[in-house]
Amino acid sequence: MRLFVSEGAPGALPVLAAASRARERAELLISTVGPEECVVPFLSGPKIPVLQLDSGNYLFSTSAICSRYFFLLSGWEQDDLTNQWLEWEAVELQPVLSAALYYLVIQGKKGEDVLCPVRKALTHIDHSLSRQSCPFLTGETESLADIVLWGALYPLLQDPAYLPEELGALCSWFQMLSTQEPCQQAAETVLKQQGALALRPYLQKQPQPRPREGKSVSNEPEEEELTTLSEEEIAMAVTAWEKGLGGLPPLRPQKNPVLPVAGEKNVLITSALPYVNNVPHLGNIIGCVLSADVFARYSRLRQWNTLYLCGTDEYGTATETKAMEEGLTPQEICDKYHVIHADIYRWFNISFDIFGRTTTQQQTEITQDIFQRLLARGFVLQDTVEQLRCEHCARFLADRFVEGVCPFCGYEEARGDQCDKCGKLINAIELKKPQCKVCRSPPVVKSSQHLFLDLPKLENLLETWLEKVLASSDWTPNARFIIRSWLRDGLKPRCITRDLKWGTPVPLEGFEDKVFYVWFDATIGYLSITANYTDQWERWWKNPEQVDLYQFMAKDNVPFHGLVFPCSALGTEDNYTLVSHLIATEYLNYEDGKFSKSRGVGVFGDMAQDTGIPADIWRFYLLYIRPEGQDSAFSWTDMLLKNNSELLNNLGNFINRAGMFVSKFFGGYVPEMVLTLDDQRLLAHVTLELQHYHQLLEKVRIRDALRSILTISRHGNQYIQVNEPWKWIKGSEADRQRAGTVTGLAVNIAALLSVMLQPYMPTVSATIQDQLQLPPPACSVLPTNFLCTLPAGHQIGTVSPLFQKLENDQIESLRQRFGGGQAKASPKPAVVETVITVGPQQIQVLMDEVTKQGNIVRELKAQKADNNQVAAEVAKLLELKKQLALAEGKPLDPPKGKKKK
Amino acid sequence: MAAAAELMLLEKSLGLSKENKYSAQGERQIPVLQTNSGPSLTGLTTIAAHLVRQANKEYLLGSTPEEKAVVQQWLEYRVTHVDGQSGKDDVRTLLKDLNLYLEDKVYLTGYNFTLADILLYYGLHRFIVDLTVQEKEKYLNVSRWFCHIQHYPGIRQHLPSVVFIKNRLYTNSH
């Protein structure tokens, strides 16, 4: 038998391991061929490794080759579980794995970009291992499945950076196999101690893997499977249900201010502070405030003692510049924009306990105190810094006002603080070809005295803390990854001062004209904002034993929250509360691109209200596509689809029907319910799904928990459809009782859904609860069991539809309005021509342009100017008039102000 | 053909009574079998092999280690290369390769009828019905094999029978 291999072809790994396990390794003739050589005569493409059998036939599937060896072992039978793993490996794992390896080895990508495609598959293996609590995939002993999967994964996972430590079961399985002799030898032979790079000669001849259709940006839920229920589960669900309102836990009284209580679960929630002079876009909103809001509302429904805070981050150069632009003082700019932010979040119904700001006396006091303590403990260094100064603008350039070529990846538009492409932090003077962002002239390097936080000296403290906190808490995988890679690269001292006026003053001689750099004091903003809320702020922030701190942010903010602030706080030796759960989202894209304020692409917070689509619909859709685990994209068509299918046809339809049956058939009173075994089974299914919802939200898996709500509602719809209460109601007394039971159970499910929905869609939730007249105690607490909260005889209110259909033309006109390209009509005709849809504003702009151009022409004529010049201006005028006529000829209606009931 | 429907065809051809319940998972509708005796099984070929054992027809999975490996390879080929295929070029390559492979074979393993023949027949059916007379002649070995399998007792069931012409029409093309 002859085995054909090729340098760097990963398939040889499991084959060699399987052969030596079957003690057949010695019999094997191995021929090395080029990666493009077609060994198998009947296959059009190259395929490696290939085993030529003694019969002359060929085996070109890696797992088939491996299983041939296993079949030779006496007593070995291929069972269902092994088959299932092999099929999964071929169909699910291989496509994503080859993509990941290709990104890593050929495209030089790193970190999350590589892990992202395979994360789901890795998690699947981990869950399977931990669920069955056996050391191997198919049980107590090693099988073919272990060898095949190990061999496939080895090139990637042998690098500890790509072995996610939070997947504990996967890690120990992988490490156990990797230490076995046959595996070690195979790894040695194939990878030659070069790691994944050894695959290069093979992978570079492969076509770039195509992501599976519709898989690149995944907005789709996994299909839910109906689990089988045990008698016991059903009995427990029935017992809980029968307790009714009496089964509710007691309500905790509302207090003001909210302060931690010993012996209770005290939850402190922050969402990243938005920078004051940017209007947030949908991506910012879902990334921090909205995600944190869902969790805060959920936390309150669980009766946990909850404080949710946020505020605007107001210091820094950007504010100074904006102030210059608008001819206001920095403080006036902050006052103006703080209100804009607050309005947007109010419209989105964000339930802050505090929405503060960083430009306060408390901010100065706390920041200076932390600084003094760090200084006294020797964690602050002083050094001369080479800094970029724009002589043309006569000022030192803040990092974000310098642009140039990234020294790490060569990206052309890297900012002075961070490269958007590779995500690395940059020292502005290291930028190649720097340019002042304002005037585009090249800045010069000047030196200035600055203070540094001695991060290397704090690294040990940090690692001790991280080890403890990461083991026991819920940091999202991307946050863990980012922190790990920072630590691997080694921490360096970071400058914490800046030559600016608009900031927290540095309380040190010789630094009177400098302020703290925002990244040092912005995270202290959470503390000062709390201090503005209550003078007992230290009970939250210097109380790590009693307080659980949840911090929400987009992934670019992870280093500051997971590393820099903990270092500062640990260095003070002042017992600060540090983050226990760092929840970072990936990015949200807009349609197929990025949000861009400057290009007018995407929906920004203040525009969402003008679309006529209610805030709750926005909340629903944004949470439905929350970039949890991977980037996702906002799409208008998808929003229409999800509104019409999930909200209107599924959730809205069910709740409305349940309520209508009570009104129409039973005069508005909830009927008697006599549960059959089928009803009890439904009860148990709903209970199970409710518990699933709790498990997910406890782990802050917001997007997945929303699916549970929709699943329950689907069960409900199906239940009504199958049981047809509208037919039974016309029958005998017993038939009417059956109709009553179905209606009663359905309306109770609707009541449960209204509470589960509250974190996601607070207004809709309140509307349902009002329609059903749900008793107040049941509205503000969500127990872990499904209780009968609307008992027989309860009178409900008036039922009406909850959602409006979104129409195609409405969405189409919104898409065009926010699509970019026509944010401002330019006076240049060439640009005006690209305007496809024209709203009243554009018409107004065009009219103004026509008037202006008309004046220019008249003036030129009056001055008897050169004929050519006049002709050119007249041509411009005519073009503008044509555009205007075109625009007025088919003006599009602004979207109708549809409001949901 | 949906995977569940295909598995029910297989059940019938194996002579099993219809007691199994199938559902589908994910956007690609991967079949799931809820078994009475343990956890559910996921995946077309996994369930198919399970059914074969349920029917005590293990010989359909191959007899020698080599034959078993060959069966497994073509089952994998079915789910990785045949399913999800839609581009005309991809289908052409697929048929060309198979045609070459089947040149000296009656069945996929050579001389023994196995599960690989059944599932590849079900999987290819949607492509073969659309072939022109000329294409069927071009992939002569595939046509011969396909025609043979569809006449194998109990396999085709309600699937449309594909007509093959025995005498060559396009003698020039060879």
Verbal overview:
The complex is a heterodimer of chains A (901) and B (174). Chain A is an alpha/beta fold and 901 residues long. Chain A has five domains: 214 residues, Up-down Bundle (Glutathione S-transferase Yfyf (Class Pi), Chain A, domain 2); 193 residues, 3-Layer(aba) Sandwich (Rossmann fold); 45 residues, no CATH class; 145 residues, Isoleucyl-tRNA Synthetase, Domain 1 (Orthogonal Bundle); 82 residues, no CATH class. Chain A has 32 helices and 20 strands. The longest helix of chain A has 31 residues. Chain A is globular. Chain B is mostly helical and 174 residues long. Chain B has one domain: Up-down Bundle (Glutathione S-transferase Yfyf (Class Pi), Chain A, domain 2), CATH 1.20.1050. In chain B, β1 and β2 form a beta hairpin. In chain B, α5 packs across α7. The mean pLDDT of chain B is 88. Chains A and B meet through α2 and α3 of A and β1, β2, β3, α2 and α3 of B. Chain B: Positive modulator of ATM response to DNA damage. Chain B: Keywords: Acetylation, Coiled coil, Cytoplasm, Nucleus, Protein biosynthesis.
